[in-house]
């Protein structure tokens, strides 16, 4: 089966079309030059579309995609990271970091105790390094707790 | 002599206690980064850049720290190649071929010491080469105008694509994606927003550090989740470390040949250290012939790729500093560092900021000796660090990446973008789409477009200008012809097409993407 590359090729072509449409949305300015703001992006979209066609018609062999379990794990990892990105500002550094690091550690090696220790250790250790050795202005805990 | 006065200036910068401290710290960190499987020189440097900023380092200090990390990672990569049969980074791949068999035969210590010396030899050779070649090249590059630069960028992308993937179309696509991402944000020439979709966060464009850390570090975490950290376990025990003098003296010719090959491979735009170690190993294998026993665990088999890889690492700095066109993935990351520090590499760098250039060269010379000391007598310490398990290492890398990027802008949007790049990086790695051209595209996209547009302004819209035709007024017919742009363009086409045919001749062991 060579489905991956064919599918990828279709996505690339659609992306190139969307990029072309985006290029035509660029508003002209009172300053202008012979090339303009559209030409170079349009050239890129053209080359990308050709590449997409090549993938559709001359695909490589499929890579080894992970099974459903592993894929689920990666989705969980992504969700944890997104949640972390949102939590970092309101909740401070220590709590989200400990939770996020523990979950990631658990996903690589599924043992609860070492994962918890890793989470706590990384959270506190990195906070000390960042705050006192590198002098970053990190907030340790939620603002409300600190009064 | 000019060279000596320049070097004196360099050492006066590099020998200040603080710079010296940074060089030593960088070497130490770099060796660890190189030795740990999954953390290569490009990720390592990428993760550390945001932290270097928050330390408030000035340009010279930041550059000294990062290049020390870079050189250190090149040395360190061999440690896990030899002991675990896992390359610590891509360029160290060739070292596994003879290093691991040597370690299994009980000669792990010898292999580490010999490859350490070979690394030193290669890196020293390349640093001296950089010293001699870079000023010459910058004098030539002084004459380059926009059409030459446009051709040069094209050359960089086509040669980088040529070796980064098995499929040329995928390499070309990666360049397009990178260049396309660079277009996001305000247009330099007209000030109009492009491809922002009305999102205010995108007005400044996509920060290349976000893309670099996402594509390299975050994607690596996904790879590890997929493999459940299977790829990291201590394999071979290290016995006593002694200096095998006889093997060393017998290998001087090997180291010299490999350094020359590696340095040349490094200077070529887009080639980088992986190609350097590959060519050095293959070349030396041919020189030694059947009797050499390459692949069965011979000392020369670890010395050749390590000398080649470290010489290429130094060589790759030549085009980065003189032309602003990086020769490898990691030098692309170093270029990102320079641009963020408001230093534009290029021919003028040598005249405008001699303190930066020569300070860097002097630091590299010092770093080499520091690294030799760290990697030969003190190599056992790094072997212990290798036993950090993946389930501690990877969450740590992840958290450092998050804090690094967060400290740059303090916005969750950049963090989300970083995660997005991580997912893309993982999928692309599956599909054998190389990620280094994407980084290079994001870095150089605006420069490349500017070169094209400035060339067209100069020629009033006549595209023949790009091929070297020059005239005083567009209507008067061309006055003379410059061969540089078209020769660069011919090289670019050749560099893109040649691998398609060469690939049938040389079977590659693995995709090269340092």
How is the topology of this model organized?
The complex is a heterodimer of chains A (147) and B (514).
Chain A: H1 3-25, H2 39-57, H3 68-91, H4 94-108, H5 112-133, H6 143-146
Chain B: H1 2-14, H2 17-35, H3 41-54, H4 59-84, H5 95-141, H6 146-164, H7 168-182, E1 185-186, E2 193-194, H8 208-227, H9 245-250, H10 252-267, H11 272-288, H12 299-315, H13 317-323, H14 329-340, H15 347-352, H16 354-375, H17 379-385, H18 390-409, H19 412-430, H20 436-458, E3 469-470, E4 480-481, H21 483-505
Antiparallel strand pairs in B: 1-2, 3-4
Briefly summarize what is shown:
The complex is a heterodimer of chains A (147) and B (514). Chain A has 6 helices and no strands. Chain A has helices at 3-25, 39-57, 68-91, 94-108, 112-133, 143-146.
How is this structure best described in words?
The complex is a heterodimer of chains A (147) and B (514). Chain A is mainly alpha-helical and 147 residues long. In chain A, 73% of the residues lie in helices and 0% in strands. Chain A folds into two domains: 55 residues; 79 residues. The radius of gyration of chain A is 24 Å and the shape is flat. Chain B has one domain. In chain B, 72% of the residues lie in helices and 2% in strands. Chain B contains 21 helices and four strands. In chain B, strand 1 and strand 2 form a beta hairpin. Classes of the chains: A mainly alpha (147), B mainly alpha (514). Chains A and B meet through helix 1, helix 2, helix 3, helix 4 and helix 5 of A and helix 7, strand 2, helix 8, helix 18 and helix 19 of B.
List keywords for this structure.
heterodimer; A: 147 residues; 2 domains; 73% helix; flat; B: 514 residues; two-stranded antiparallel ribbon; disordered C terminus
């Amino acid at each position: 089966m060579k489905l991956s590359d064919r599918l990828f090729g279709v996505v690339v072509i659609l992306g190139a079309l969307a990029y072309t449409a985006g290029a035509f949305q660029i508003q002209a300015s009172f300053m202008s030059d012979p090339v303009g703001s559209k030409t170079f992006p349009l050239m890129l979209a053209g080359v990308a579309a050709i590449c997409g066609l090549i993938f559709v018609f001359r695909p490589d062999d499929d890579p080894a995609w992970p099974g459903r379990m592993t894929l689920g794990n990666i989705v969980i990892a992504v969700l944890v990271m997104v949640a972390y990105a949102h939590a970092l500002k309101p909740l401070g550094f220590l709590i989200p970091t400990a939770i996020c690091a523990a979950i990631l550690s658990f996903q690589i090696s599924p043992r609860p105790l070492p994962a918890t220790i890793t989470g706590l250790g990384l959270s506190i250790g990195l906070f000390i390094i960042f705050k006192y050795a590198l002098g970053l202005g990190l907030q340790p805990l939620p603002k409300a707790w600190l009064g | 002599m000019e060279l000596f006065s320049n070097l004196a200036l360099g050492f006066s910068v590099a020998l200040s206690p603080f710079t010296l401290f940074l060089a030593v710290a960088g070497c130490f960190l770099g060796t660890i980064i190189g030795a740990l499987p999954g953390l290569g020189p490009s990720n390592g440097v990428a993760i550390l850049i945001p932290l270097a900023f928050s330390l408030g380092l000035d340009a010279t200090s930041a550059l000294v720290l990062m290049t020390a990390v870079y050189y250190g990672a090149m040395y360190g990569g061999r440690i896990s190649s030899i002991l675990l049969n896992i390359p610590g980074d891509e360029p160290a791949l060739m070292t596994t071929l003879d290093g691991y068999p040597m370690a299994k035969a009980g000669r792990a210590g010898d292999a580490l010491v010999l490859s350490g010396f070979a690394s030193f030899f290669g890196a020293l050779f390349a640093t001296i080469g950089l010293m001699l070649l870079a000023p010459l090249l910058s004098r030539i590059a002084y004459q380059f105008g926009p059409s030459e630069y446009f051709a040069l960028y094209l050359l960089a992308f086509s040669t980088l694509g040529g070796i980064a993937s098995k499929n040329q179309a995928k390499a070309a696509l990666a360049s397009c994606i990178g260049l396309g991402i660079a277009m996001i944000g305000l247009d330099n020439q007209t000030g109009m927003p492009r491809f922002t979709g009305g999102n205010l966060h995108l007005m400044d464009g996509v920060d290349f550090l976000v893309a670099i850390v996402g594509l390299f570090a975050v994607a690596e975490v996904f790879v590890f989740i997929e493999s459940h950290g299977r790829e990291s376990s201590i394999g071979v025990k290290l016995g006593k470390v002694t200096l095998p003098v006889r093997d060393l003296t017998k290998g001087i010719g090997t180291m010299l040949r490999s350094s020359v090959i590696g340095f040349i491979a490094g200077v070529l735009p887009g080639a980088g250290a992986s190609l350097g170690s590959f060519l050095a190993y293959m070349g030396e294998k041919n020189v030694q012939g059947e009797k050499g026993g390459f692949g069965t665990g011979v000392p020369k088999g670890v010395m050749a790729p390590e000398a080649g890889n470290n010489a290429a690492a130094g060589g790759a700095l030549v085009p980065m500093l003189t032309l602003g066109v990086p020769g490898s993935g990691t030098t692309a990351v170093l270029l990102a560092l320079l641009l963020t520090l408001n230093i534009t590499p290029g021919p003028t760098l040598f005249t405008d900021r001699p303190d930066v250039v020569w300070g860097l060269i002097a630091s590299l010379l010092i770093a080499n000796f520091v690294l030799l000391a760290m990697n030969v007598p003190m190599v056992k310490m790094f072997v212990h660090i290798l036993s950090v398990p993946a389930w501690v290492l990877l969450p740590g890398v992840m958290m450092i990446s998050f804090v690094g990027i967060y400290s740059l802008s303090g916005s969750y949007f950049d963090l989300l973008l970083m995660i997005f790049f991580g997912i893309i990086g993982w999928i692309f790695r599956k599909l054998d789409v190389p990620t280094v051209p994407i980084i290079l595209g994001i870095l150089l996209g605006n420069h490349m477009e500017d070169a094209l547009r400035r060339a067209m302004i100069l020629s009033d819209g006549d595209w023949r200008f790009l091929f070297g035709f020059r005239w005083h007024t567009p209507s008067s017919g061309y006055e003379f012809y410059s061969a540089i742009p078209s020769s660069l363009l011919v090289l670019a086409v050749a560099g893109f097409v040649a691998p398609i045919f060469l690939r049938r001749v040389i079977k590659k062991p693995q995709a090269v993407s340092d």
